[in-house]
Design brief:
- Helix 2 links the parallel strand 1 and strand 2.
- 36% of the residues lie in helices and 16% in strands.
- The strands form two sheets. Strands 4-3-6-7 form a four-stranded antiparallel β-sheet. A three-stranded mixed β-sheet has the order 1-2-5, with no helix packed on it.
- By secondary structure, it is α+β, with helices and mostly antiparallel strands.
- The protein starts with a helix and ends with a helix.
- The longest helix is centred in the first third of the chain and has 22 residues.
Length: 157
């Protein structure tokens, strides 16, 4: 029994270390990369393609860099889809570059520029969290490790 408790304790320690390590691996993404946050010459498809090539995970950050007259606002899907900036609150709009957001929800996050027609010209991006994040994998592994000693200690009559 003592050997089982020792093994169980070691497995928990390994799982905790792996879990802590997954949280430390957050990435930083610069929206638009070299193009930065601007009215894209190819319309909204440019930012859709950019975001589609990324594997965003919980804890990652996205940075909006720009020069000139732009803003960034985190908005609802309806505001994003319709580029209706009338309902965007002033304190939800950031007007000084750079702006950094930490991805802290698994829900899609919508960002637009609120200047004039910039949004309708394609200056908007949806950030979606990858469905197979490393945190999910570590959680699954942790519970699997916890189940091994339990299942091996069961006696079937």
């Amino acid at each position: 029994m003592a050997a089982l408790v020792g093994i169980f304790g070691r497995l928990i320690a390994v799982a905790v270390l792996l879990w802590c390590g997954a949280g430390a691996a957050a990435d930083t993404y610069y929206v638009g990369d070299d193009m930065a946050w601007s009215v894209p010459p190819g319309g909204a498809a440019v930012y859709s393609l950019w975001a589609g090539e990324k594997s965003f995970e919980l804890g990652d950050t996205v940075v909006f860099n720009w020069t000139g007259e732009h803003t960034v606002a985190k908005v609802s899907k309806d505001v994003y889809d319709n580029c209706t900036t009338a309902n965007v609150l002033a304190n939800d709009t950031q007007s000084t570059s750079p702006v950094t957001y930490t991805l802290n929800s698994t829900e899609p996050q919508y960002f637009i520029c609120t200047i004039g027609t910039h949004c309708s010209l394609g200056q908007k991006v949806t950030i979606s969290i990858s469905s197979a994040s490393s945190l999910d994998a570590v959680t699954t592994m942790f519970f699997s490790v916890m189940a091994i000693p339990f299942l091996t200690s069961m006696k079937i009559s």
